Amino acid sequence: MDTIDRPHYLTHEVTNQPPPLAEYNAAASDAALLEGLEREAAGWDGDGLLALGARAGSAEAIGWGFDANRHAPELRTHDRYGHRIDEVAFHPAWHRLMETAVAHGLHGAPWREPRAGAHAARMARFYVWSQVESGHGCPISMTYAAVPVLRRRPDLAALFEPALTSSIYEPHLRPLREKRGALCGMAMTEKQGGSDVRANTTRAEAFDGDTYALTGHKWFCSAPMSDAFLVLAQAAEGLTCFFLPRILPDETRNAFHIQRLKDKLGNRSNASSEIELDAALALRVGDEGRGVATIIEMVTHTRLDCVGGSAALMRQAFVQAAHHARHRRAFGALLADQPLMENVLADLALESEAATTLLMRLAGAVDRSADDPREAAFARIAIALGKYWVCKRAPAHVAEAMECLGGNGYVEESILPRLYREAPVNAIWEGSGNVNALDLLRALAKTPASFDALFAELDAVRGDDARFDAALAETRDGFAGGAAAEPRNARRAVEALALLLQASLLLRYAPPFVAEAFAASRLGNDGGATFGTLPASADVRAIVTRAWPG
């Protein structure tokens, strides 16, 4: 057969497409993160963070993130012989992600090796590794947050903390005392109450000393494959916190039955479930009737990780958008060189830097809380502020970054659809917007030390920027007059405080061109309602170059 000469326009030549973003260091180009690491007394971990950043930017790790989400976990309630096993099966990529996270101490390093800046160092690593894949951060975060709660029972901490803070990832269920590495989950919410955990109906009946038998249905149990769980249940004196192991010391399975896995919008690599407890044995942690007060420390730490997870999503979304814009040409020029796109990228970078800077300040406050009452008071309020605001900003930020790629960003081969599906979850978990805002206003009213610590932080930069001063005076007047403390105004008040806190940190620590643009667009009248509306005074090129050198 004669060879057919095909017209030159029938071609599979690919042009004007950016190269894959891989084999880069996810930490090395993040100036706000590295500066925060030094500022929060964690500079000693610089080499370790950069090593993890190189791993996070590797093609292999990026592939794990895709595979773990493409192959969702599967519930196996029974074995082939009909025995109840209640196990969750994961793709090998999930285990590689978990193995790396545990080896780098994301779940327990500050408790295992306490030192100055330990929580800040751990948070920097959590933020970098979460850019690879977010779902596996759930069991990592809960294990990290469970340790201080468990320490309320020194006898239990002595038994179980070594496994919960070990750098060994051991996914197979065995009695906790025999495990070299273990994970801890949480089961608080029930179908009739949701965030109103005091409406819980799960019963806890005294069994033997501080051991109770728990019976009830939990509507949302995160990471059901964990080795143990912190659980809330109603004891004789009221809502109480319990530590519930999956495997009992005699190697039998506890009466912890997984009813189904949730079919979630995002976070699909991570198993979330409904469970039934049928006289499951658990150990009391804290006094009867003090369940919320006992477990709240866990919630505080998981809320901090919600800030870290959302900041990581925003950072990765910006990186993807900037990388694309620096390689894609349209209308005769690179996208990154076109004024309006440059404005959008700068605005995304600005939001990301504000989130990262706040995140590192919060982690530093946790480090200093044990020895500094003012830092402890600041952390109680500022973590809630960060949780509310940064988690609220993530969905819109990721959506704008996706738009920078156009149709290329909307397809699943791009990481952006996964980031977008993931973006709402941190605002929903650990207290949705209304719950978080109202909790924060109550805390400000009940703990004057927290109110004073927050405003002392803001007052430290008063006089540096007229727009900041005006916004601070207006917010202070709102609290003095009582309007800001009214429940219907809770979101407005919390938003104002969060923006002021971010602005104060940027005025203090960021280059002037960053702080100026943030104050003008977020506190002044020179910004619009969407990203890409920075005023003409903003040095957009400098902002983008700082965020993503190239």
UniProtKB/TrEMBL annotation:
| Pfam families per UniProt | Acyl-CoA_dh_1, Acyl-CoA_dh_M, AidB_N
| Domain (Acyl-CoA dehydrogenase/oxidase C-terminal): residue spans on this chain | 289-444
Q: Which UniProt keywords apply?
A: FAD, Flavoprotein, Oxidoreductase
Kindly list any coiled-coil regions of this protein. Answer: none
* Residue ranges of domain Adaptive response protein AidB N-terminal in the record: 16-171
Q: Which PROSITE patterns match?
A: ACYL_COA_DH_1, ACYL_COA_DH_2
Signal sequence extent: none
- Alphabetized InterPro entries for the sequence: Acyl-CoA_dehydrogenase-like (IPR052904), Acyl-CoA_DH_CS (IPR006089), Acyl-CoA_Oxase/DH_mid-dom (IPR006091), AcylCo_DH-like_C (IPR036250), AcylCo_DH/oxidase_C (IPR009075), AcylCoA_DH/oxidase_NM_dom_sf (IPR009100), AidB_N (IPR041504)
Name a GO molecular-function annotation: acyl-CoA dehydrogenase activity
Q: Where is the Acyl-CoA oxidase/dehydrogenase middle domain?
A: 185-278
What cofactor does this one take? FAD
What family does this belong to? Belongs to the acyl-CoA dehydrogenase family.
The protein, known as: DNA alkylation response protein
Annotated organism of origin: Vulcanimicrobium alpinum
